[in-house]
Amino acid sequence: LREIPEFDSGGNPVLDPLTGEQLLINEGFLVSFDEVFIQKRATVNWSIRTRKTNSNISVFIERRAFESNDFEDRVKGSSLRWSWNISRKNLFSANMSLRKTQRVASDDTYRTILTSFRRSLAPNATASISLSRLQRLGAAVNNTYTVNTISATFNMNW
């Protein structure tokens, strides 16, 4: 969340009629900016591998303190990944992740689910299909959305 000064089409500051000061707009969505912040992150990973499966659980907590103001973001997240070698040529994988960002004015939650199936067609060619769902739950109405994706790919190396 940032406050950005408002300017008219001529580049002149827009003044608030009540206070006479320059009007500031609160942006409730992510934007790129050139602000410096201090980031601290702790991560715990656990993995196990068997002959046909790989499993991974990851949990993290992160804190970002912005230097130019007193804003602080606290981010918590986790992910679960599992893959299964069905045969020498076939691989199935499933991923789930959750990420929650806590800010002074709003919170955001991202949930992701991805499943995919990959088949080796030849030593230098693979085909895959994947289904994914990304859901963002934000405090503001325009910050909430869901994206469903189906993709098919064919890769060939020579």
List the helices and strands and how they pair.
Layout: E1 2-5, E2 24-27, E3 37-49, E4 53-66, E5 72-85, E6 90-102, E7 107-122, E8 125-138, E9 145-156
Antiparallel strand pairs: 1-2, 3-4, 4-5, 5-6, 6-7, 7-8, 8-9
Description of the molecule:
The protein has 158 residues and is mainly β. It is built from no helices and 9 strands. Strands 3-4-5-6-7-8-9 form a 7-stranded antiparallel beta sheet, with no helix packed on it. A two-stranded antiparallel sheet has the order 1-2. The radius of gyration is 22 Å and the shape is elongated. The termini are far apart.
Please indicate the percent range of residues in DSSP E strands (runs of 2 or more).
Answer: over 45%
Number of helical segments? 0
Shape: elongated
Give me the Rg, rounded. Answer: 22 Å
User: Which structural class fits the helix and strand makeup?
Assistant: mainly beta
Poorly predicted regions are none
Question: Main sheet: which strands, in order across?
Answer: 3-4-5-6-7-8-9
- Distance, first to last CA: 48 Å
Please tally the β strands and state the result.
Answer: 9
Measured as a percent range, the helix fraction is: under 10%
Order of helices and strands: EEEEEEEEE
Largest sheet: 7 strands, antiparallel
Average pLDDT confidence is 83
Main attributes?
158 residues; mainly beta; seven-stranded antiparallel beta sheet; two-stranded antiparallel sheet; 0% helix
